Amino acid sequence: MDSSLLANAESVVARARTGDPEALGALYRAFEVPVYNLARRICRTTEDAEDVLQETFFEVCRSIGRYREEGSLWGWVRTIAASKALMRIRRNKYRETDELHDQVVGKRQEDSHLRMDLEAALERLSETSRAVVWLHDVEGYTHEEIAKMMGKTPSFSKSQLARAHARLRQWLGEEVAA
Amino acid sequence: MTHLSMDQLLTLREPGSEPGAATAREHLNQCPQCQTELDRLHQRVARLKALPSLRPGRDRWPETAARFRADRLRRRTRLAGLTGLAAAASVALVIGVGRLFQPANPATPTSAQISQAMERSQALESALSDYNPDGRVLDGRTARMAQELEDRIAQVDRELEATELSQQQARDNDLLKLWRERVGLLDALVDVHVTRASNAGL
């Protein structure tokens, strides 16, 4: 994140609220990478992630007047980004094949006895599982918060996380010998 | 011996205690295999957090900003329609009442002049939307010109918002000036798009 923005966050936000293009551009530059990273870690393709990036900042520009400075600016932007990314995975064509995707990839990896690196293993999780892993383990959202954003129950989020970690452990060759 | 499930291991990482956590912890203290599993889980999460940041392949800000400007313009047009009616009505009322008590000041803009500028502005925005500027690919120079004009229109819009809240006399003078400036800028913006469209044979 751009530290110069963090130092002048109040004045930049105040100017952004008036629609000042320079201030809105500064917000984009400050949060472009973390927003894209979150989107790319959740969405399957770079195109989807770039669309989420654009959707997020369009929403930031429109709603900055409603930002109440109760939490951190990044926390506010991040929640918008997470919602947009989850909306994207709900909408996209892979959503109906999540279950199948996990099973097929899991089987293929078992058969080939390949040890994958973490990046590749994460990529191979279904979008829903990957979203839960990323939001919970990396971004620090609770199961309750994730459930609310996904329109599911906390139990759903917990079981997705457990299943995802079991798969990651297997694909990474980390199983402990009994 | 039954080892801890992934679900139980994850629960042990959560703050606060859930039902069964005490039993699970008791097992963990006595089971080296589950301790190794939990360590690996901690390490896996640490490695996830340490993954490098991914960066977008291209700059999406110009598109995002253009979309936001177009959205603002549309909202402003709708707002101007409503504000125009309200302003025309209030100006007409003030002028009507004022004329009963004092001679008209020729330097004060009339509601008709302000309404005329607003109508012209709306007509130009309508013409502009016919050219679908957001959906067109512009060369760099044209895009820069269009962006500069749109930025100046956004600036005028901000001034209009502020002026609408100021005192009546100064307000009418400034409103007319700003609406006329807006018309001029929109005129130039329409020209940019018309010229570009005719050059491209569209």
Could you please describe the fold and organization of this structure?
- The complex is a heterodimer of chains A (178) and B (202).
- With 178 residues, chain A is mostly helical.
- Chain A has two domains: 3-91, Orthogonal Bundle (Rna Polymerase Sigma Factor, Chain: A), CATH 1.10.1740; 95-171, Winged helix-like DNA-binding domain superfamily/Winged helix DNA-binding domain (Arc Repressor Mutant, subunit A).
- Helix content of chain A is 75%, strand content 0%.
- Chain A is built from ten helices and no strands.
- In chain A, helix 4 (46-63) crosses helix 5 (73-91) and helix 9 (143-150) packs across helix 10.
- Chain B is mainly α.
- Chain B has two domains: 6-49, no CATH class; 79-199, no CATH class.
- The A-B interface holds A 18-21, 24-25, 28-29, 32-34, 36-37, 40-41, 46, 49-50, 53-54, 57-58, 61-62, 118-119, 122, 133-134, 137-138, 158-159, 161-163, 165-166, 168-169, 172, 174, 176, 178 and B 3, 5-7, 9-10, 33, 36-37, 40-41, 44-45, 47-49, 51, 53-58, 60-61, 63-65, 67-69, 71-72, 151, 154, 157-158.
